[in-house]
Amino acid sequence: IVLTQSPGTLSLSPGERATLSCRASQSVTSNHLAWYQQKPGQAPRLLIYGASRRATDIPDRFSASGSGTDFTLTISGLEPEDFAVYYCQHYSNSVTFGPGTKVDVK
Amino acid sequence: QMYLVESGGGVVQPGGSLRLSCAASGFSFNRYAMHWVRQAPDTGLEWVAVITYDGYNAFYADSVKGRFTISRDNSKTTLYLQMNNVRPEDTALYYCLRSEYFPYWYYDIWGRGTLVTVSS
């Protein structure tokens, strides 16, 4: 399965809503999709698994939805620490990552 | 606190070998599948290999199959990646990661990674 993320870069201001897309080349089995956040110089951090389940200690401004081939990560009001790169990941009989969406300050 | 600490990275010539290690602590290492995922400079993430909790089964990305070997020592709570016949495109930061059993291969704990540079 190949994952495509859009847009490549999203330029927004703090407080704005961010909507990130992840599209799969084939239907994702049982919503086996995760989202990660990566800040410069840091390892990625798990945000979402099972397409919509927030990981431990992830703020509720992060939400995700989707099924089949189309998935969305939404950040309801951007905080300064949310400006980062976001990756989606499919996991099933293989593991693939999307190319990432960079959320930067407008 | 749960930790994964990678080590063993460095500069290696094309065609050379390197062995990466990952020390795990703070959780029941022998209950989890373990993976290596890499990230080339300023690029995205690529899954490399996985080994089951008991070490009996391993699976590899096509890009490393036949050159890399993943292994584990549950008595030492340590994961390994033996890299042979390395290529310039293997240059990356290598992360070791834990996951639940197949197919729940998502990653909740990340270390700092260990950098491998393949260059003559």
Short description:
The complex is a heterodimer of chains A (106) and B (120). With 106 residues, chain A is an all-beta fold.
Q: What average pLDDT do the residues of chain A reach?
A: 95
- Overall shape of chain A: it is globular
Structural class of chain A: mainly beta
β content of chain A, as a range?
over 45%
Report Rg of chain A: 13 Å
Order of helices and strands of chain A: EEEEEEEEEEE
Q: What multimeric state do the chains show?
A: heterodimer
Main beta-sheet annotation of chain A: 7 strands, mixed
Report the C-alpha radius of gyration of chain B, rounded.
13 Å
Biggest beta-sheet profile of chain B:
6 strands, mixed
Which overall shape of chain B is indicated by the principal axes computed on the Cα atoms?
Answer: globular
Secondary structure tally, helices of chain B: 0
The N- and C-terminal alpha carbons of chain B lie at a distance of 40 Å
How many beta strands in the DSSP annotation of chain A?
11
Helix percentage range of chain B: under 10%
Low-confidence segments of chain A, ≥5 residues, pLDDT <50?
none
State the largest interface: A-B, 24 and 19 residues
- Order of helix and strand elements from N to C terminus of chain B: EEEEEEEEEE
Helical content of chain A, roughly? Answer: under 10%
Low-pLDDT segments, ≥5 res of chain B = none
